[in-house]
Amino acid sequence: MNERSEPTGRTGDGPPGPRPTPASQGGGLSSPRPTADFVTGAADLGIEFEPGDLDRLARFLGLLLEANTRTNLTAITDPAEAWLRHILDALTLLPMLAELPEGSRVLDVGSGGGVPALPLAIVCPHLRFTLLEATGKKAAYLRETIGALGLGNAEVVQARAETAGQDRGERRPDGTRPGAMREVFGAVTARAVGRLAMVAELTIPFAARGGLVLLVKGQKADEELAEAAEAIRVLGAVHAGTVDTPTGRIVVLEKSMLTPRTYPRRDGEPKRAPLGVGTRADRGRDPA
């Protein structure tokens, strides 16, 4: 993996995103304040927050924990633990996003409660985030939260990754494909979606050639990488490195060639029969 920039909290010099209006801050919801452990952890990572960032992160955490009482979004209900396992964990991705140009698109697959995408959207207003979520209630929560936080650089797409990953948009005479989801993102993230062999098929097709796929994993990352080696190769990516963080490990893949048109497969197929696990039938397939 090539050496990347040190984390700075801000990953670019773009203008700050829109701030929530007083009306959007209402509702009587608590916004748990950052813990000492979080502040220390962020400082250790070299993160420097812009004015208002911590308030918005606290507001997001309050919205997440409140919504979790109605919809199953997270097993973590203690605010102090959530600052570390949700917010700090999300921000460990900042160094990998540091080299993306202003206006780059980042896709989060299986967004659920909005981690890591929404904390990253708060501190990276120069990047554009798309949150992909298949479940209607969770997608509705994400839209409401984006509105409450006043995030103008985040949007929600409700669809399965298998379907969205085949969306090439409508081709125009000039060769552009407005609305395309496939192979248009500078970076793709996924957290707590499943084993790497399955997640690879649900993420790599979205990345543009030369883009990054950032998979937040635990201590079994090496075991999952070995299992997913064939899937990563067939889908057109290479393993660029694994980054140890205070909260886990980040598997970094780089998209080196176009993904074959047959991937992702039909809904549910990547989970039922992960690519390359127990078979080598896909060896030798050429990219589209």
Low-confidence stretches: 1-28, 280-288
Q: Can you write the helix and strand succession as a string? A: HHHHEHEHEHEHEHEEH
Helix content: 25-40%
> How much β-strand is present in the residues?
15-25%
Order of strands in the sheet with most strands: 3-2-1-4-5-7-6
* Biggest sheet overview: 7 strands, mixed
Number of helices: 10
Give average pLDDT, whole number. 88
Radius of gyration over C-alpha positions, nearest whole angstrom: 18 Å
Assembly type of the chains comes to single chain
Q: Specify the overall morphology.
A: globular
Category from helices, strands and their pairing? alpha/beta
Note the gap between the termini.
26 Å
What does it look like?
A 7-stranded mixed sheet has the order 3-2-1-4-5-7-6, with helices on both faces. α2 (53-67) packs across α3 (79-91). Helix content is 32%, strand content 18%. With 288 residues, it is an alpha/beta fold. β1, α5 (117-123) and β2 form a beta-alpha-beta unit. The longest helix has 15 residues, at 53-67.
Keywords:
288 residues, alpha/beta, 7-stranded mixed beta sheet, disordered N terminus, disordered C terminus
Quick take:
With 288 residues, this protein is α/β, with parallel strands linked by helices.
Helices and strands, with pairings:
Elements: H1 36-44, H2 53-67, H3 79-91, H4 94-97, E1 105-109, H5 117-123, E2 128-133, H6 136-149, E3 154-158, H7 161-164, E4 185-191, H8 196-203, E5 207-217, H9 221-234, E6 237-245, E7 248-255, H10 269-272
Parallel strand pairs: 1-2, 1-4, 2-3, 4-5
Antiparallel strand pairs: 5-7, 6-7
Helix pairs in contact: 1-3, 2-3, 2-5, 8-9
